[in-house]
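Lab meeting, item 3. Inverse folding demo.
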């Protein structure tokens, strides 16, 4: 009798419980679909904004890499995060925010290009803050809760900063929201660096080298010859010192020589936070291709220092088995 009495707390029968569960699931699916539609609408608005800005850049200067090529960079990053969701331990909500962040993080580059179209002059403005400004002024995130907007603004704003994002998120977010914002910021920073490392056509093909030199150097003819080979065949000593200490290399050194610019790209591995993404970067053909180019041109003493530094870094950051495998693959035939 006692059991029968306790069951009376559940007045509905099994059929009613089943129907209630199904209606709850239907409501959940409806909300997820609605949220997905909102995300797709936002991505479309950002895409259209980027497309219009890229076209404006190319009207002024068709060769400029911050036109269609910069737009392609944003689209490729946005597309690849879906494939990395499991690796990066992202749920569907985090993935949606990251997609928006990836597609919008370099919008400010288009504005910089429009205002500083001269080939080698680097703007003094902060393209990340300009990107946030574009998102806000054009109301591109309409439909998202305010907290989601703040997470996106934070990640976009801090992705290009040399310093680490503030642990309190400038008191703009709750503790959990801040934790997510910093997580997404680091993923964006990591993938941004990996894109540079993996993009051999843009940075290491003869045409790519010429384009990069034309963009970053006031006198390209003093940096490479017509075959894209370096004129100065050594690395700036201060840049090499920074590299040996696992530091990023200051851009002021890259105008010394093209090998120094190659070392600048190699040093990006020191700032990749996610271990799985670090392994991906180190295992990519981009690292070995840069090492081969440096070995071909720079003094043996400088190359050996670079080789030793990378080996020490890998051993410090990864477990013994993974480190040994990567080092063997990386320096085989070098």
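The presenter then showed the designed sequence:
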């Amino acid at each position: 009798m006692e059991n029968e009495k306790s069951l009376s707390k559940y007045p509905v029968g099994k059929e009613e419980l089943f129907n209630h569960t199904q209606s709850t699931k239907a409501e959940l699916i409806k909300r997820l679909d609605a949220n997905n539609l909102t995300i797709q609408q936002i991505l479309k608005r950002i895409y259209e904004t980027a497309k219009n800005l890229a076209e404006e850049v190319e009207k002024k200067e068709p060769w400029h890499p911050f036109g269609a090529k910069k737009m392609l960079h944003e689209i490729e990053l946005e597309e690849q995060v879906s494939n990395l969701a499991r690796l990066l331990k992202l749920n569907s909500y985090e993935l949606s925010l990251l997609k928006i962040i990836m597609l919008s993080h370099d919008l400010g580059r288009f504005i910089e290009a429009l205002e500083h179209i001269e080939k080698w002059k680097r703007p003094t403005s902060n393209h990340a803050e300009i990107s946030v400004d574009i998102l806000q002024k054009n109301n591109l995130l309409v439909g998202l809760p305010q907290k989601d907007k703040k997470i996106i603004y934070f990640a976009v704003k801090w992705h290009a900063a040399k310093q680490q994002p503030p642990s309190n998120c400038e008191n703009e977010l709750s503790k959990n929201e801040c934790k997510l914002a910093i997580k997404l910021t680091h993923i964006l920073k990591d993938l941004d660096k990996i894109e540079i490392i993996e993009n051999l056509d843009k940075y290491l093909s003869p045409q790519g080298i010429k384009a990069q030199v034309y963009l970053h150097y006031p006198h390209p003819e003093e940096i490479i010859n017509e075959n894209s080979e370096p004129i100065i065949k050594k690395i700036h000593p201060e840049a090499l010192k920074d590299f040996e200490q696992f530091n990023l290399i200051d851009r002021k050194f890259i105008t010394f020589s093209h090998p120094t610019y190659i070392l600048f790209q190699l040093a990006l591995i020191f700032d990749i936070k996610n271990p799985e993404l670090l392994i991906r970067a180190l295992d990519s053909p981009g690292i070995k291709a840069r090492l081969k180019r440096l070995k071909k041109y720079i003094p043996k003493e400088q190359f050996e220092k670079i080789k030793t530094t990378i080996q020490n870094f890998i051993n410090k950051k990864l477990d013994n088995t993974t480190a040994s495998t990567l080092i063997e693959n990386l320096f085989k035939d070098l």
